[in-house]
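Fold it.
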Amino acid sequence: MTTLTRDDFRLRPADLADMPAVYRVCLKTGNAGRDATDREDDPDALGHMFIGPYLVLQPDFAFVLDGPNGVAGYVMGALDTPDFYLRMERDWLSRIRARVMDPGDDENRWSGSDWVRRLIHRPPYLYPPALHPYPSHGHVDFLPEARGLGWGRLGFEHLMTALKDAGSPGMHLDVSPHNHSAIAFYRKLGFAPVISDELPSGGLTMARRF
């Protein structure tokens, strides 16, 4: 996949050596786009759940944005969601669970990163029929230093092109309903909310066809 360069930033294919850097970006953007460092007591938990498996299991669809201060963001995705979830369970989370405590299902006793630890042990693997026309999915997170420069759009279009070229007919993504700037960003890229009783209340899933 082609490397994109503009100004002081460069979007390139990710590799396993980027793992610490993408975990840091995941933490620094993990509170609806804001820094989650003060909220999480395990700085790696968010990365374990939300970005590590993409880097390891779907390297053809994993890209990082290099900036003057190192990795400033990433855009990553999965081509076939049900296949990815199967591999995530078998080849990724089964190993992570060995070193991450399960806090149980009593949310009143959770603190710090327990909410992520619970997801690691009991992931939702949400892929109802309403999402089947959009079998791919993706994530993008950029640090503040990389925002407002057009890289978000370039990066996500780069990912969508890679998925489309690999045969995907469309993709979906989850976004915090409180992250209004992210919702507006995805709308500009052609994504629209998926309205379905099959999806959990309180969340927001957006999708588009290629």
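The longest strand covers residues 70-78.
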